Each structure stands twice: as C-alpha cells, then as structure tokens.
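User: Predict the structure for this protein chain, please.
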Amino acid sequence: MPCIFSASVSSRDLPALLHHLARTYHADLLLCGPLAPAAAPRTERSIAGIAPVRELELHTDTPREHLHDFCFTPCATAVSGTIGYLNYTGGLARYGLRSDKPENRPDNRPDNWPDNKPDNWPDNWPDDRPENSPNGRSDQKPENWPEDTPESKPADRQKDLPEGLFRQYAIQLIISPAQEPCSPPHSVDGTAGTDTGNHTARHDSRHDSGHDYGHDKGHGKEHVLECHTAEILPDSLYGKQSAALLDELKALCTGEVPPDPIPAHVAPLSRDALSRRLRQSLDRKGYVRRVERVLEHIRDGDTYQLNLSTRFDADLSGTGFDPLTFFMHMWDQHPAPFYAWLSHGSTRIISTSPERFLCVRDGQVLSQPIKGTLEFESFTEGMEKALTASPKESAELSMIVDLIRNDIAACCEYGSVQVSAHKETFTVDRLIQMYSDVRGTLRSGSTCLDLLLDAFPGGSVTGCPKQRTMRIIEKEEPHSRGLYCGSVVFIEDPQNMDSSIAIRTGWYDSITKALCFFSGSGIVLDSNPESEYRETLAKAGKFLRALAP
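Assistant: Here is the predicted structure, written as structure tokens:
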C-alpha cells in the first residue's frame, strides 16, 4: 500500500484533526491513549480508516475461510489493513451456546428494571466538564457509501449489531508518536522495555491528583502521520475527484488548512435528570442477588470464577447529545490504550477499553489479561502493593492467566507459552488495575486470525472453566452483551494483529437516541456481593460522569 504523503502533527492539534476526519469523512478510528512512557498495556499507533470499499458481516454460519480470504487476499482497491470487531454473543456458538436476548431493543426491557437511579449513586463525583451485506459475502460499496447515512435507509434502522464486522478502506492514516532519544525503549509488542519484574507499578506521575491523565496539551509533542492508499482508487470519493480529496486531506494533515475545533463537551443531563432517564438491567439488589447465586455455583464446583455484568441504558432524546464529541471528550479526559469509534447503520460504537486481548508481532504472541481492581480518589503510595497482596484479586488474575495460557496454546509452538510478567499494575479511569503478560510463538501454519477466533471470547470476561461459566452467564444476566466483552481488532497480515477486549464499551443509536454501556466484575469464592456491585459502578464511572457530573 503506497504512502502518498506524511506529516508531523502535534498532540495539541491531533484531537481536532481526528474529530474532523470522523465528522467529515465518516472515518472509523482506533486511538491509543497518551499514557506515560512506562505505562502498559500500551499501543503506539492510532489508525483512521476512510472510504470503506469492502465489508464483511459475520454470522453464525459464516465459514472461517471467508474471513481469512477477506483479510489476507490482496485487493488492489483496498489498503491491506483490516479494522473490525467480534461480538461476544456471536462467540457463544463456538461453545454450543446461543442467546435469544435482544441487543438493541430498549422498549423490550424486563419488567423488573428499576425506574430510579442506581443504588449507591456516588455523591463525590467531581465536575469533570472542561467546559448490510449478504451472509458471509463481501460487497463493493458505492463510492458515496459513507455519505448514505442510516437515517435515509429505514430498512436498516434499529437492527442488532452483526456477530462480526470487518472493513477495508481506500485510504488509511497511521499516526505514531515521533521517536524521542530520551524516551524509554519499547519492544515491538507495545510493552515497556525490559522492566518486567513482578508487582511493578506502571503509572503516570499525575495520578496522585485522583484524576485521569489527559492529553499533554502544553507541550505539542509530535506525531508522525502517514497516508496510505489503495493501488487503485475510484474516480471519485465523497462526491469529489479522488485526487482532489487527497489534496484536501494533505492540507488538513499538514496544517495548511486547520480543521474545525472540537465543540466543547457539555454534559447532556443533570444528576437528577439522569436518575430519571437511566435504567440498569441489574440494580444493586438484583446484582447482589446474582452474585450470591454465582457464589453457590462456585461452592458447587460449577465454576471457579465468573465475570458478571450489568447494562446501563440512558435515554438522551431531546438533549442534543453528540456521540462523536462525547467520544473525543472521553479520549481527552480518560485516556486508555484501546479507544475505538465505529459506525454500523444507526449505531455509533464507543469503546474506551484499557485491555489488550491478543497482539501478534511477526509471529510473537502477547495477551495481557486484566484482573484485580482498586478504585481511588486520591492516589497514595502503597496502593499498588495493597492490590497485588490481596489474595482475592491475586486469585482472580492467576486463574485467568492459566485459562489464557490454555486458550493460546492451540495456535502456538509447543513449549513457547510462558508468563513473562505477573501481577503488574497500571492506572486508568481512576482505578489501579492488575494484569499479566502471557507470551507465545505463533505455530507454523496458523495465522493471527486463527489465534483470535480460537481464543475468543477472552477468558478475562468469561471466567473459568470457560464453557460452563458462559452457560451460567447466559442464565444469570438478563441482558445480551452484544459487542460488550467482544473484541475490536486491527489485522495487518497473517503474522501481525492487535486487538482489545471490548470493556468500558457502549453504543449510541441515532434513531432511538439511547446510549447503552456496561460494566462488570469478576466473582470468586471470597467475593463480597456489595463490594462487587460498587466495583461495577466504579468502572462505569467515566460514562456516568460525562453524562451528568
């Protein structure tokens, strides 16, 4: 894929450029967060896909070979990198399970959904306002496809997200931080240098304020932007000659024509208004009751650990809510390694995940499961040690690490799977999180896509043993997870890929004006039901604060 131009973009100018690309060119965005140099998990690149020319929807009966061909067969009209996602619910079929729960039907809520705000609504939230393709077949889209908005296609309205969706584009922008001689070295898989000792806290020095670290606007750090295009471009894109569009993009990226500033995010609701418009699939009483039932399953030997989630639905009709401005605000104020902005029909996907699922770099495999959480308002020394010393949190992580080792072993060389770091910590979303590095070498004859599909869904969001635990989840959770706990992925070639676990994730329907998002916690034998519910609120906190500070 030829690089037709490159440019230097400062961190000060980057958010407005990305916002302009998504607003004007309907770009899909995969954004890394500006974490501290030693922070991990980390990614080094942001990606914008412009003018999708090929799309593949996955369904239960889509052969795996169709996805392989789509991702790895060269196509002169598309850049080789593929952006996509896998829906958690679609992953049930691999384990002989299915879900009949509707995903995007806010009017079909269970009768027992509460009419009031969530229990334990925090009183100390600070004011953080800165002021359809046929089954298994890829279709060539018309030149103006991104401009053909879902609002003009009634047949596509309010459909559930497909089990998987993959796209290739005529134009792709790759944005990487400029190399700084003084910055710590990083390995190709995105982990920090050689600092892999156990219990090493990797965090930003600003976290002791109790706030997430936003973009360092005062320093204009440089990023390198490269624009890649397909070998063969259509004559026109977005109603313009392709050459003229590329000139327009170049002028924007080089700063010759500055992009429009991002509108200031204004929270759409007051706290009282949100309490009237917000629904949970499991309120405090319901969640605690489900945790108690899961503990019975654990004592009976049905499962050892289970990730139990709740769904939030916010009615934002009449508020003027802008999902793209909301997404950019979240990225600015609550950075994390795996942000994603994707569109499908009337749905706008907003993923703000801190967790890597699987990364493959030249055949070297890395998974970084997160288990273990400690919420803080004001950081103090010793908090990380309190987390890593907790028997409960340590048990959560260790069980999932064993599961991940087994999940990736089927596609890795015999004897290559190892845990290179265990019980590491980093801070994100006002939480200290614990994680491990599980590594392996991709087996000859296997591709990164084989690895992704065989290990999906990620063990950190199911529990173990996986099949029996997923069956219990389907019984105990009244909602469908949909994309939540699935995976967002960027695939380059058979030996190179990066993917997230789609936690801290939701989606907005531009027809119903409803935003849904989810949070969950890992349940083990010594879990306290009330504490687990409070953890779900802490993980949903950045969404709730941005809606109503």
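The longest strand covers residues 164-177.
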